[in-house]
Amino acid sequence: MLFAAALAAVGASHAMAAAPLSGFALFGWVSPPVEFTTPDRLGEMAALGFDVVLPTQDDQGIPADNHVRLDAAAAHGMRCLVYDDRFFHAYLKGITTPAAGAVFDSIVADYRDHPALLGYYLGDEPRGAWVDTIALFHELK
Q1: Could you report the average pLDDT of every consecutive run of 10 residues in the chain (141 residues)?
Q2: What does the alpha-carbon distance between residue 89 and residue 69 come to, in Å, rounded to a whole number?
Q3: In what order do the strands lie in the sheet with 117-120?
């Protein structure tokens, strides 16, 4: 599988103990499909200098898949952006409602202490209500 390499500016490192990223992160356009996101495959990516793992093209946002990816990334000193399908369910409940807040809290609780967590993937080129959502997630540290 070919990976399109991209450079992206990275802000301050996450508050927890994790391998700090340099001023730029190197990552593939997308990650290998879930069934190929193995420790060996991420080891190959790390050996090429990649340090961030993105969700897969057809990522279903399943927490168990995310934890496998996070664990494999951590084993190679890499960090992940996590997509979790519960974000969409919270959005349907109304971003600022207590019901959505409970969903967001559960998402954050599932991943916040993982050393490979870099952040959350909320979509590609967000606009409108998603911009406000991103600001809200910034407050959920």
Answers
A1: 26 42 76 86 92 89 94 94 91 86 93 94 73 66 52
A2: 22
A3: 5-9, 24-28, 52-53, 79-82, 117-120
